[in-house]
Design goal:
The chain is mostly helical and 40 residues long. The chain is built from 1 helix and no strands. 0% of the residues are buried. Keywords: Membrane, Transmembrane, Transmembrane helix.
Protein backbone atom coordinates (compact mmCIF):
# COMPACT_ATOMS: atom_id res chain seq x y z
CA UNK A 1 0.00 0.00 0.00
CA UNK A 2 1.38 3.35 -0.96
CA UNK A 3 0.95 6.29 1.43
CA UNK A 4 -1.54 8.94 0.26
CA UNK A 5 0.02 11.98 -1.33
CA UNK A 6 -0.45 15.28 0.48
CA UNK A 7 -2.99 17.50 -1.26
CA UNK A 8 -1.28 20.03 -3.49
CA UNK A 9 -2.64 23.56 -3.46
CA UNK A 10 -3.59 24.51 -7.00
CA UNK A 11 -5.45 27.83 -7.25
CA UNK A 12 -8.24 28.10 -9.78
CA UNK A 13 -7.88 30.04 -13.01
CA UNK A 14 -9.53 33.12 -11.49
CA UNK A 15 -7.23 33.51 -8.49
CA UNK A 16 -4.37 35.09 -10.43
CA UNK A 17 -6.70 37.63 -12.01
CA UNK A 18 -8.22 38.41 -8.60
CA UNK A 19 -4.76 38.97 -7.12
CA UNK A 20 -3.88 41.22 -10.07
CA UNK A 21 -6.99 43.35 -9.51
CA UNK A 22 -6.23 43.53 -5.78
CA UNK A 23 -2.69 44.71 -6.57
CA UNK A 24 -4.01 47.35 -8.97
CA UNK A 25 -6.52 48.54 -6.37
CA UNK A 26 -3.85 48.83 -3.66
CA UNK A 27 -1.51 50.65 -6.03
CA UNK A 28 -4.26 53.12 -6.96
CA UNK A 29 -5.03 53.71 -3.27
CA UNK A 30 -1.36 54.40 -2.56
CA UNK A 31 -1.21 56.85 -5.47
CA UNK A 32 -4.31 58.68 -4.21
CA UNK A 33 -2.95 58.90 -0.65
CA UNK A 34 0.48 60.00 -1.83
CA UNK A 35 -1.10 62.60 -4.11
CA UNK A 36 -3.15 63.94 -1.22
CA UNK A 37 -0.02 64.18 0.95
CA UNK A 38 2.14 65.88 -1.67
CA UNK A 39 -0.45 68.21 -3.23
CA UNK A 40 -2.70 68.66 -0.21
Amino acid sequence: MTPPEPPRYEPGPGVGRLMLWALVFVLAAVVVVAGGVYFG
